[in-house]
Amino acid sequence: MSSEDVSPSGQDSDPEALRREARRIAHDLNNMFTVIVGSIDGAMEEILTARQERMLKRAQEAVRRAEALASELSKHARGKGG
What we know:
The protein is mainly alpha-helical. The chain is 71% helix and 0% strand.
């Protein structure tokens, strides 16, 4: 088996194995995003300077975009992307 036949986790690169890996990655990313969003929301409840508030709002937007990408990954992994 060549290195091209193996996914990063060492599994065969057959389509079903890749879909399972993509679903696992999307699930793990969503778990991390939940923690990040909770932390940002908690920080937003504090007294902030205008600069801190702008930075947190940019972080919130970045997480929203990342969540959308993880959702797309999950859809593709289930064969519903496109």
